[in-house]
Amino acid sequence: MFNFKFPKFIKKLGPGLITGAADDDPSGIATYSQAGAQYGFGLLWTMFFTYPLMVGIQLVSARIGLVTGRGLAENMRRFYPQYVTWPLVILLLAANTINIAADLAAMADAVKLVIGGPRHLYAVGFGMSCLLLQIFIPYERYVRILKWLTLSLFAYVGTVFASHVEWNTVIKATVFPETIFTSQYVLLIVGVFGTTISPYLFFWQAGQEVEEVRVKHNTTYLNHHPQHLGTHLKRIRIDTIVGMGFSNLIAFFIMLTTAATLFKAGLHDIQTSAQAAE
């Protein structure tokens, strides 16, 4: 008999769910907002293509971290020559630094929009807060905080249902999209795929799987207890499928929200998440 226990199911979710939620960061929200504002419902179909691709690459990344007990960067260092590893790591470092800076700036803009004040001070405050939380809060407690924070993304779902969306039009545009082969259209498709399937997510989920094993056992636990590997792989599969589904669902509703509001109002030039909020 089928016996589904929701609290137990939620407890199993971790790195996959958090990684999926992290994909809907301020820079990603800005891209999805641009897609909805410029092309209405015309790019909703992209989420049905990014989802299986995300699940595939994140599953591989998570399994590498779990089985080896090391993150992707450490595995690259061990198995690839330095002339391959160093350029990749430097590119990742540069991309992550720019991405984090953009996210902090967007968060600061959002606070300024609500209460006013100096955006630079807010950006520094957010950066220091994130750093201190990671240093001083134990991993298990920090993970619980992040899992609860993922619920805030459902605000985009609620906004859609308050926007009087014509669902028949949405379904038709999603299943039978009208493609516009212009440079701007193609560029935005690349942007949507690029912000959804981001390299830092590969490293992040692999690293989180290493932490999960280290906290509960140790990083070489599965080498000595291979009989437990199947249980962990099943957890990773469920966690990743749900987490990436959550990520794409939220991205879908962000595009849907801006399409139903900004595009409908003729506001097509959206560059940041703060502009979309205004």
Outline the structure in words.
The chain has 278 residues and is mainly α. It has one domain (14-72, 142-277). The protein has 15 helices and no strands. The chain has helices spanning 6-12, 15-23, 26-39, 47-68, 72-79, 82-115, 119-136, 139-149, 155-161, 167-175, 183-196, 199-216, 221-224, 229-263, 273-277. The longest helix is centred in the last third of the chain and has 35 residues, at 229-263.
Helix percent band: over 70%
Low-confidence stretches: none
Percent of residues in beta strands? under 5%
Calculate the terminal CA-CA distance, rounded to whole Å: 51 Å
Features:
15 helices, mainly alpha
Structural topology:
Layout: H1 6-12, H2 15-23, H3 26-39, H4 47-68, H5 72-79, H6 82-115, H7 119-136, H8 139-149, H9 155-161, H10 167-175, H11 183-196, H12 199-216, H13 221-224, H14 229-263, H15 273-277
